[in-house]
Design goal:
Layout (H helix, E strand, L loop, with lengths): L1 H16 L5 H37 L3 H25 L2 H20 L19 E7 L4 H11 L4 E5 L1 H6 L1 H9 L3 E4 L14 H19 L5 E2 L10 H7 L3 E2 L4 E2 L8 H8 L8 E5 L5 H9 L15
Helix pairs in contact: 1-2, 3-4, 3-9, 5-11, 10-11
This protein binds zinc ion.
Zinc ion binds next to strand 1.
Length: about 300
């Protein structure tokens, strides 16, 4: 706009200097030109913002349509990079590709990164929220339930669909004791969920939802990706199914660490109100770790008995 105004201004000065043209005509030209260019400029700005708004709304929508948009964006970015290689130098294309890949890695592999869609990392509560992944497990689940009962604490169990199908009585018991069951995919494909396509992503999440609801009668409200690695197609599916994506902000690597004391040393020192703690079952130290977390003053009974608060 400033450039256009400057050009018009310069033209007006030149025209005034030309004695053949009257000042009135110059002023009329200047006013009319400004209006025209101003209107065109505003139309352009509105058009661009409308287009960006439309693209962002489509990308952040739910269901297969939003995933198709995400797939289109992914292909479009690659096409632009390849075109850049042909048009300029392949070194530039390689650098642009590496930059896009790095951004994608952060978005996908960082469990609390919000670039792909909203992720809950803490709760508005005076207490902590304990979440227990990878069950149900015939050895651990009953013991963990007893521990939680003894401390009158409610938790969210993020369960794997296949395990729920194998141990339906454990899933029902978790609900009967007042806890919540979250969706942790059907097969827990921890090595490949990050690169799953739209169909597989949908199947993993939707089938897990179905099995949990058919066995317990309760529809899951939360979703957690295997090892927290979402992919570009996760959020449109979770939105479609009414699931809130939940990560964590405290963890002790209890799924790989053999020493419970080391796990607790990572979790407890900073533990405070509103923290979401990530724990696992089906590990040799599950009971010991939960005991340690429950002994912390921040882990107290929720007065309303709501596990999600
Ligand atoms: Zn898991």
């Amino acid at each position: 706009m400033l450039v256009i105004a400057a050009v018009l201004g310069r033209m007006a000065v030149l025209m005034v200097q030309d004695s053949q043209i009257s000042r009135r005509r110059v002023l009329a030209f200047f006013a009319g030109g400004t209006l025209l260019w101003g209107w065109l400029g505003l139309a352009c700005i509105n058009g661009i913002s409308w287009a960006i708004d439309g693209i962002l709304t489509s990308l952040s929508g739910s269901g297969p349509r939003a995933n198709a948009w995400r797939m289109f964006l992914l292909i479009f970015i690659h096409a632009v990079i390849i075109a850049l290689g042909f048009a300029t130098d392949w070194r530039w294309a390689l650098m642009a590709g590496a930059f896009v890949a790095a951004m994608l890695c952060i978005a996908i592999l960082h469990p609390s990164c919000q670039w792909l869609g909203p992720v809950k990392t803490h709760v508005e509560s005076a207490e902590i929220l304990i979440t227990i992944d990878d069950g149900p497990d015939p050895h651990d689940t009953p013991k963990l339930l007893d521990l939680l009962d003894a401390h009158q604490v409610k938790a969210i169990f993020f369960m794997i669909g296949e395990k729920v199908r194998a141990h339906p009585e454990l899933a029902r018991e978790v609900i009967r004791r007042g806890h919540e069951i979250g969706n942790h995919t059907m097969t827990h494909p921890q090595a490949s969920f990050w690169c799953a396509g739209p169909r597989r992503t949908r199947r993993e999440i939707a089938e897990c939802n179905q099995i949990i609801e058919s066995i317990t009668g309760v529809k899951p409200r939360c979703f957690r990706a295997p090892v927290g690695h979402r992919n570009g197609f996760t959020h449109p599916v979770t939105r479609e199914l009414g699931l809130e994506v939940m990560a964590w902000n405290r963890r002790g690597y209890d799924a790989v660490e053999k020493d419970a004391a080391k796990v607790l040393a990572r979790i407890l020192p900073k533990l405070g109100a509103g923290d979401i703690v990530l724990l696992h079952e089906a590990t040799p130290i599950a009971e010991e770790v939960l005991k340690g977390v429950l002994a912390h003053p921040a882990a107290q009974r929720r007065p309303d008995g709501d596990a999600s608060a």
